[in-house]
Design a protein that fits this description.
The complex is a heterodimer of chains A (about 120) and B (about 160). Chain A is about 30% helix and about 10% strand. Chain A is of the alpha+beta class. The longest helix of chain A is centred in the first third of the chain and has 15 residues, at about 1-15. Chain A is globular. Chain A starts with a helix and ends in an 11-residue tail after the last strand. Chain B has two domains: about 1-50, no CATH class; about 55-140, Alpha-Beta Complex (Cytochrome C3). In chain B, about 20% of the residues lie in helices and about 5% in strands. A three-stranded antiparallel sheet of chain B has the order 1-2-3. The chains are: A alpha+beta (about 120), B alpha+beta (about 160).
Chain lengths: ~120, ~160
Amino acid sequence: MKLAGALFAAVIMALVAVPAAAEYADVVLNKRSEKEGVRPVVFPHWFHRIRFQCRVCHHELGFKMRVGANDVTMNEISEGKFCGACHNGDIAWGADRCDLCHSGKPGLPTGIFGGHETGGPGRW
Amino acid sequence: MRKDGLHDPKSPAIKQLQEPREALSRLPPDTTGNMVRWVQALETGVIQPRPSLKPGVEAEILDRDILLDLKGSMPIILFPHKRHTQWLACANCHDGVFEKQTGATKMSMFQILAGEQCGICHGAVSFPLTECFRCHSVVRPGQVKPAIPPGLPRSHNLPGPP
């Protein structure tokens, strides 16, 4: 009976404990961050597409459409390239607000996360 | 966001960043991906994403549908340039990912599922590859559309379709 009770409890726990998931198209960038002593970046792609069409970042600003393919440094951002085109303290918060972008859990790999249907191929 | 597995619960940003639900729950609901009908959101003006950082630059829209895979067994693919150019620049696909000439690029679901071709976006940021019939949308003569339920159960507690 004890075993059955424990099993029952385990099943209930499994059903109730819905894992909170990352949002579909949350992007983690950690090519350099942790090596340079800051948290990985969590880039909410979904947030940005509400405000900008794809072409703004992926054409005008030159972001390649492949996570990890862009080699972006803080120097470039401070010079107004890539994220720095908007994150300049004018359109959006500036590069001095490190924590707002570098907000990821330590140890996360670069990649696209999130969504209940993105458990597929890992190339993204 | 504190428990999403991505954000560091100790990060001071947690209190300042917008929760996905706050932004997305106001948009036309879908059954998959961000649970948002992004094209509908754009076309109805619910969102008005800027076409450029430069003032006065308008989006270059191409209203041309392309039929693909005319000889296959799945329903024919109808590719709407319009919905894609409402977001993307021509150069995002042409030439590179796809040749401009219809049929010149050999396409396969293997590549798409591996994150190439359409899979660069679909499955990553736009509706995922579980939604076969959103692309394979033109039923061939005599063909019965296979019944696959659209999307999985809602998990974001977003409002259902009207």
